[in-house]
Amino acid sequence: MADTQTRKRRGGGRAGAAARRGSAVIDQMPWNPPINTDRPTEPLDQAGIEAIHEGAMRILEEIGIEFYNEEALGILKEAGCTINGDNVRMGRDFVMEMVAKAPSKFTITPRNPDKTIEVGGKTLLFGNVSSPPNYWDLEIGTKVAGNREMCRNLLKLTQYFNCIHFAGGYPVEPVDIHASVRHLDVLYDKLTLTDKAMHAYSLGKERVEDVMEMVRIAGGHSHEEFEATPRMYTNINSTSPLKHDHPMIDGCLRLARRGQAIVVTPFTLAGAMAPVTMAGAVAQSLAEALCAIALFQYVRPGIPCVIGTFTSNVDMKSGAPAFGTPEYMRSTQMTGQMARYYGLPMRSSGVCAANVPDGQAVWETSNSLWAAVQSGTNMVYHAAGWLEGGLIASPEKFIMDCEILQQIQRYMQPEITATGPDEIALDAIKSVGNDGHFFGIQHTQDRYTTAFYQPFLSDWKNYEGWDVAGGIWTAERAHHMFKEIVTSFEPPPIDDGIREELEDFVARRKAEGGAPTDF
């Protein structure tokens, strides 16, 4: 135990040193997860909330959800649900009783306790892009399959930017690593290149068990310490419409029994996998999420659970997913109302359908991110780096998105809307009078370095100044910044003994074959 405590101290985060390293390339804002000070946008009146709730409950009671997991079926049968083959129908009283057991707020403590995050309440957390199979950057200039080097570089951006608060899944799939051991290599990279909250894919028991053990080792925790509070989380998707598959439910059950956090996010595309009407799509999404949360609460009452939304629409001309649309924004706001109705923290996403980091990518992602703000979202997945509906990860897009995230963080700082005597500034106004200016007065001089948001990527020169400086477009500036960051990157400190223990674990599990695959 004493050795464990020593290792935990030595493996700590040193957030201040990380911030100083960050200033070598850009002068970014400090680590400070924003508090959403705005009232949420609520498009539904009380009758609308009740109508969507009623729709979700009737789906669960009259239609049911398919659970392709024998253990889950047995648990839900024991709980009194109606089982017919794989179909599960559950009464609203049971669902609401179980959901009420989930906390409205909880923390996740990574290996660096300085990077602990609070999930719920008014806290707004941003995560990196997760799970694209492909990669694009300005130097390559085309879509290519992801590899480990690309994945590691995106993890470096995840660690580098203070406005990224948790590490999601693989920021790009490293398909050059065999699927049986991919999780071992990538989790080793994540745990040594970052010290932020970790994610586990619920894709087979071996992957989940391996990741939990690696997170435990990286934190220097005993098994009891690991299970005493959430140290990591998973995110699962239902298989819409109205299905939950075996591996994701299995993974969540394993995490729940060890006290780790669970995010349940149905992937409901209106017009394809859900009704074309947004109210119908939201009701279906809620039903798919609530039944799983009810299962996990029955297994371990009080386990932290987050309700996710990934409700958007398809292009009715092609069937392709669309993101950052007015419908996406409204469905996110509506789900935010329903999350508050159920007393659950909420997850949404920063997403777009654009193929390259262009104007479309920015406006669709900005719409998605501001919908997250408006909805009262707590965890924003894919907040930086997402392209082509989740099929491409891009470092330029990652950096462009971080500019938006910093602006949201600045937007939420209370000093902007402070109304004390210094802010009303009557003496300053009186000293300038009717024919002066405010540039040179003391009130301005005392505040000019912190008065306004200072971008790290935007170029505020006029056209002539921009042209003389090379006429560099935004994505190109982001590309140069990406290269500087990864070249100068210093990983967060980790105890040598912990690193060796992680290496030994990875080597042993590889020798044992890792996770089974059919190829």
TrEMBL record:
Kindly give the Pfam families that the UniProt entry links to this protein.
MTTB
Tell me the leader sequence span.
none
As one GO molecular function, the record gives:
methyltransferase activity
Ordered alphabetically, the record's keywords are: Methyltransferase, Transferase
An individual GO BP term: methylation
Give the record's family classification: Belongs to the trimethylamine methyltransferase family.
What name does this protein carry? Methyltransferase
- Region labeled Disordered — which residues? 1-41
Report the source organism. Answer: Ruegeria atlantica
Q: Which InterPro entries match?
A: MttB-like_sf, MTTB_MeTrfase
The Enzyme Commission number assigned here is 2.1.1.-
